[in-house]
């Protein structure tokens, strides 16, 4: 299995242990890492059976003002921004995120905020026989869980988990 980490995260695949498919033919990613996993799966020439996207970073429903405010806040005080971000990732749990923390960059933040999920690429993966799974927490404080669910339903098996947030823990 190949796993891609989220913005400000490292080695967090342990958080998703109950859901991960341990196979050489599985690609998975969390949040920002879901974008990277998707791009990797689309361009990879090797066999991929399953693409697992955990709380995929999805901001297509946000306006330019929201995105600009996020980047300005990060630029002004990246430490305060990332501390708040990590708390929002854990919400509604009080799970200790520190063991998985890695300082993110403004370039990564900008990329995830402005990324557009390509429906044609999702369809192409389906046509290649890749099983796409999307896991979303009902109480996610980072992304709009209902919007993300509605977007991915035509392309994936979507697991909408009750009473959990971005890291899928309560």
UniProtKB/TrEMBL annotation:
This is Alpha/beta hydrolase. The lineage of its organism: Bacteria, Pseudomonadati, Campylobacterota, Epsilonproteobacteria, Campylobacterales.
């Amino acid at each position: 299995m190949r796993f891609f980490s989220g913005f400000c995260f490292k080695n967090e695949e342990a958080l998703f242990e109950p859901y991960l498919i341990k196979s050489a033919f599985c690609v998975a990613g969390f949040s920002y890492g879901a974008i990277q996993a998707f791009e990797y799966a689309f361009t990879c020439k090797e066999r991929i059976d399953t693409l697992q996207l955990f709380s995929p970073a999805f901001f297509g429903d946000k306006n330019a003002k929201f995105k600009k405010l996020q980047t300005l806040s990060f630029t002004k005080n990246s430490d305060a921004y990332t501390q708040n971000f990590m708390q929002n990732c854990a919400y509604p749990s009080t799970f200790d995120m520190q063991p998985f923390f890695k300082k993110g960059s403004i370039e990564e933040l900008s990329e995830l905020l402005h990324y557009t999920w390509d429906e044609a690429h999702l369809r192409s993966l389906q046509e290649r026989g890749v099983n796409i799974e999307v896991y979303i927490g009902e109480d996610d404080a980072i992304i709009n869980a209902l919007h993300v669910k509605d977007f991915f339903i035509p392309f994936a098996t979507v697991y909408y988990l009750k009473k959990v947030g971005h890291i899928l823990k309560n």
